[in-house]
Specification:
Largest sheet: none
Order of helices and strands: HHHHHHHHHHH
Number of domains: 2
Strand content: under 5%
Shape: elongated
Structural class: mainly alpha
Distance between the termini: 53 Å
Bound molecules: zinc ion
Number of strands: 0
């Protein structure tokens, strides 16, 4: 549409284009020697980015209190996604499938409890309870006996901040839900059954590998305990 010395509109005879041309100030007509620049107004720096388009079009809602558990700087995307779905109650647990008329997996895959739902699967089941006992000890938290609907707020409060302890808690919560969901699906679809200690091992490994890729965590008084408990080098601290 822009040539060296003027506009070349695709449909110059249209009255809309004529109106635009008629109202354009002379400074906007391309001329030889003048400096032209394309500016993307929705972005403050004038540059076009996919992010700026996304922010332009999306509907913005207030930030939920548990957002930082999932999307903080040290998250594990595959685990965050499962936790996000779990918090929204959107994982296809037995109770949810039953509402769609699918009744094949109504029993808990770990303890055969009749009625698999998010609360039972992730926190009330004796199997997952044994997993949480180990993980909670390693995080110095107590997330037991909290209704599923209240849990994200409680966990978010325990995970606030950027210390090693809070990063470990955040990663552990997400990795635990992720591995419990993975184990539940493996039992249904692959007919493979791991014991609790193997699930715990998977959670701990996932958290450790993520932490080993970090090297700038701010030092605090509780670091020594967590470094020892999670077998981590001090080099992950600033
Ligand atoms: Zn169960």
């Amino acid at each position: 549409m822009i040539s060296v010395t003027g506009w070349h509109w695709p449909n110059a005879s249209s009255w809309q284009v004529k109106e635009i041309v008629g109202h354009s100030p002379p400074i906007m007509v391309p001329t030889i020697g003048s400096r032209d620049e394309i500016i993307w107004l929705p972005n403050k720096n004038g540059l076009f980015t996919i992010g700026s388009v996304w922010n332009l079009w999306r509907k913005k809602w207030p930030k939920v209190s548990w957002a930082d558990i999932l999307w903080g700087p040290y998250n594990i995307p595959k685990a965050s996604f499962v936790v996000w779905m779990a918090i929204l109650g959107r994982l296809n647990t037995g109770d949810r499938l039953a509402t769609f008329g699918i009744n094949g997996v109504s029993n808990c895959q770990f303890c055969t409890h009749n009625g698999e739902d998010h609360q039972h699967l992730f926190f009330q089941c004796p199997f997952t309870l044994r997993v949480w006992i180990v993980i909670q000890d390693k995080c110095q938290v107590n997330w037991q006996n909290i209704p599923w609907s209240d849990l994200p707020q409680v966990v978010a409060a325990d995970c606030k901040g950027k210390s090693l302890a809070t990063i470990i808690r955040r990663l552990s919560f997400c990795s635990s839900l992720y591995h419990i969901w993975l184990e539940r699906n493996n039992r249904i679809f692959s007919h493979e059954r791991k014991p609790e200690d193997a699930v715990v091992k998977g959670i701990v490994s996932l958290v450790r590998y993520r932490l080993l890729a970090i090297s700038n965590i701010k030092r605090t008084q509780t670091d020594e305990w967590f470094l020892h408990e999670w077998r981590l080098p001090a080099s992950i601290l600033k």
